[in-house]
Amino acid sequence: MSEPDFQDIPAYKPTKNEDFMSVGQIDHFKAKLSAWMNQLISDAESTINHIQEDSNQVADINDRATLEEEFALELRTRDRERKLISKIEKTLHIIELGDYGYCKTCGAEISLVRLEARPTADECIDCKTIAERKEV
After folding, report:
1. Cβ contacts of residue 36 below 8 Å, gap of 6+?
2. Where are the domains of the chain?
3. Is 123 within 8 Å of 131 (Cβ atoms)?
4. Backbone CA torsion sign across 39, 14, 96, 86
5. CB count, 10 Å around CB of 119?
6. Which of 25, 66, 84, 134 is the most core-located residue (most Cβ within 10 A)?
7. What is the per-residue pLDDT across 28-60, written as a single tens digit (0 to 9) for each?
8. Integer Cα distance of 77 and 81 in angstroms
């Protein structure tokens, strides 16, 4: 059985007059981040198994080259996901510190809509936009 996709967790619907980053919101984002991380770890394990099982089955040199290229692409994807797992772990630590949901640059609340789309977001949309403009 595979892990649930973090996108399958429904968006959080705050109640009227609910404080920002209430216990319910924190629990929701912890669950979302944990499910996402578990999915990434499961995908990485399945890639390892896939590479181990399929690497010995090809005799033709052309098929072997194609297979190795596919493996290289998979490994690049998994490397990006490894970095994402690290970012998710950092975000879970920020939740434990009580700073989750607030922009690291200006301290403003990061909108729930933004956090639903990108649970690892650590800047509000305004600060992120400014930072991206400076990168160009």
Report:
1. 6, 88, 119
2. 21-99, 101-136
3. yes
4. positive
5. 22
6. 25
7. 999 999 999 999 999 888 887 777 776 667 678
8. 6
Q: Tokens 């789309």 identify what position?
A: 117
What angle (nearest 5°) sits at the alpha carbon of residue 55, between those of residues 53 and 75? 90
Tally Cβ neighbours within 10 Å of residue 107. Answer: 10
Q: Out of 1.20.120.910, 1.10.1040.10, 1.20.120.1460, 3.90.960.10, which CATH number does the structure's domain 21-99 have?
A: 1.20.120.910
Nearest to 114 by CA among 127, 101, 95: 101
Q: Which two tokens stand for residue 93?
A: 């630590």
- Tens of pLDDT along 87-119? 999 999 999 999 999 999 999 999 999 999 999
